[in-house]
Amino acid sequence: MTDQPPGSPYEPEDVVQQDGVGDADPFLRLWTPHRMAYIAGENKPTSDAAGSCPFCRIPALPDADGLIVQRAEAAYAVLNLYPYNPGHLMVVPYRHVADYTELTPAEVADVARLTQEAMVAVREVSAAHGFNIGMNQGEIAGAGIAAHLHQHVVPRWGGDTNFMPVIGQTKVLPQLLADTRSLLAKNWPTG
Fold this sequence. Notes:
Elements: H1 35-39, H2 54-57, H3 63-66, E1 68-71, E2 75-79, E3 89-93, H4 105-126, E4 130-134, E5 151-156, H5 163-166, H6 177-186
Antiparallel strand pairs: 1-2, 2-3, 3-5, 4-5
């Protein structure tokens, strides 16, 4: 048994050691088995073909079913099914294209405008302190679906990086995605 951290509310008898997993620690576990779908590759395309791409299928669904928050001519904003933080959106061109340099001027304009509008909407409903915005270009750069470009808009708050994601590899999301989508869609700025 290792020493408890200063101020730990857990007494040594509260910590159960599982055989074969190393030394016990003072952390409780918040199990998130739904994340296994992402880890196992649910909804990941099996090829680069547009027909197997979730970003190509989503626009054909009703907005609430596809978690689409806003549509524009050449792109749309959709909630991330596996969010890093509450309100994590992606801005996606309708056209199945992998590289930012392949976007048309109209697609670049819509991606940029929807990103700005997403920031306004998220600030309105959740008072985000900041954002991480970016694209992972290619599988080697971390793109989960490299064949279809998408830009992440991740809201951030002071103190949102705590032991849960850093140590526990777990995010606590206080709201259902359908509720988040509805709230953002209602508060999306009109262009």
